[in-house]
């Protein structure tokens, strides 16, 4: 399956006009969970702007591009490259980078989807890393919560718009774990992704939006 990529992450046609919220607007939503310390800072940016400081992270950190390549191999979807769909989240503490997460959110091109009554939305975790000095303080949980909050925002909007055209939104989560710690993070995120979908669909049904529940598809592989 080919995914359409363009800078605005938009799909346009006579009957559909869909767009995922631009990266620059995500920080304005108030969906960032509190960090362990008030003076720490979190930055959301395109993956192409990932700070060069990640080159100096210690221990088991793997270069982001290598992880992205592995994630694409593990995913059931064949994708085209799109910088606008890939996000980097960086946490700074004590004047240095303390943690980084990179992930992608992708919307299937409606013109080439497999079925005229379905459209796919996918979140793919590329990598998540917390520097050793800042571990066991809840940073990884904060990053996971932010990723799920972004997915929740996307899904609520997409479900509402697609329901007007009798199109079913099908949700996917995919990741490739390269360490045992990464496997735990993938498990946490996949479970939270399913719970998020349950909550969004329940809320929409209560509001009378004609959506139908279908459990998200989870694709997580582990190399650890």
Describe the structure.
By secondary structure, this protein is of the alpha/beta class. Helix content is 30%, strand content 27%. It has four helices and eight strands; from the N terminus they run ββαβαβββαβαβ. The chain has helices at residues 23-26, 64-74, 139-163, 180-206, and strands spanning 10-12, 17-19, 41-46, 86-93, 96-107, 118-130, 168-177, 217-222. The model is unreliable at 1-14 and 62-81 (pLDDT under 50).
SS content category: alpha/beta
- Give the radius of gyration: 17 Å
- Mean pLDDT equals 80
Give the biggest sheet: 6 strands, mixed
Assign an overall shape. globular
Strand order of the largest sheet: 3-4-5-6-7-8
Helix content: 25-40%
Strand content: 25-35%
Order of helices and strands: EEHEHEEEHEHE
Low-confidence stretches: 1-14, 62-81
Q: What is the straight-line distance between the termini?
A: 28 Å
Strand segment tally: 8
What keyword list fits this structure?
globular; two-stranded antiparallel ribbon; 8 strands; 224 residues; six-stranded mixed sheet; alpha/beta
Note the topology.
Blueprint: E1 10-12, E2 17-19, H1 23-26, E3 41-46, H2 64-74, E4 86-93, E5 96-107, E6 118-130, H3 139-163, E7 168-177, H4 180-206, E8 217-222
Parallel strand pairs: 6-7, 7-8
Antiparallel strand pairs: 1-2, 3-4, 4-5, 5-6
Helix pairs in contact: 3-4
């Amino acid at each position: 399956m080919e995914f359409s990529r363009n800078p605005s992450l938009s799909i346009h046609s006579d009957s559909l006009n869909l767009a995922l919220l631009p990266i620059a607007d995500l920080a304005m939503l108030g969906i960032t969970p509190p960090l362990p310390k008030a003076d720490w800072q979190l930055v959301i940016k395109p993956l192409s702007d990932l700070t060069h400081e990640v080159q100096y992270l210690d221990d088991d950190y793997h270069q982001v591009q290598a992880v992205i390549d592995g994630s694409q191999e593990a995913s059931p979807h064949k994708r085209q490259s799109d910088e606008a769909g890939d996000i980097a989240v960086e946490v700074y503490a004590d004047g240095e980078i303390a943690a980084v997460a990179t992930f992608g959110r992708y919307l299937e091109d409606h013109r080439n989807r497999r079925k005229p009554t379905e459209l796919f939305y996918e979140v793919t975790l590329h990598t998540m890393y917390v520097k050793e000095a800042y571990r066991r303080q809840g940073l990884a949980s904060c990053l996971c919560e932010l990723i799920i909050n972004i997915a929740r925002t996307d899904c609520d909007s997409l479900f509402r718009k697609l329901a007007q055209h009798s199109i079913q939104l099908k949700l996917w989560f995919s990741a490739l774990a390269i360490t045992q710690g990464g496997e735990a993070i993938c498990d946490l995120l996949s479970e939270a992704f399913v719970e998020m979908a349950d909550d969004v669909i329940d809320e929409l049904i209560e509001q009378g939006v004609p959506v139908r529940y279908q459990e998200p598809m989870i694709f997580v592989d582990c190399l650890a």
